[in-house]
Design brief:
By secondary structure, the chain is an all-alpha fold. The protein is built from four helices and no strands. The longest helix is centred in the middle third of the chain and has 31 residues.
Amino acid sequence: MLEKMFLPYKRYADFKGRSTRSEYWWFMLFFVGVIAIGYAMMGISGAFDPSFNPDTDAGALFYIATLGIFVFVLASLVPAIAVEVRRYHDQDRSGWFWFVRFVPIIGGFIVLVFMCLPGTKGDNRYGPDPQDQYGTGVFS
């Protein structure tokens, strides 16, 4: 489980090959979880200070959490794009499908559907099947 969360960081800028659904979704769970923790820290920064006024001042924890989220998202941007491109490759689609997300209103839903679809069985033009670890597809 933890291995799949961090595999996109090991394959940092690898836009070739294929990735499984579980690799993509575990990475996204980790990504969203870290951001949620950062936002919780931002909210907590003023919760225990009775004189806290969010319009005029913010505590040090707020700024640390904001900087942490910014650095994390910046460091995770390339792996997030790469793992999504590899998911498209797993479905035998071009990585240029990544730009579908910019279609107004429905783009995000289209990406969600594509990320939930299973990959093609066996080898495709982007490489071997990542779920066929032992090459058993050769004998079928």
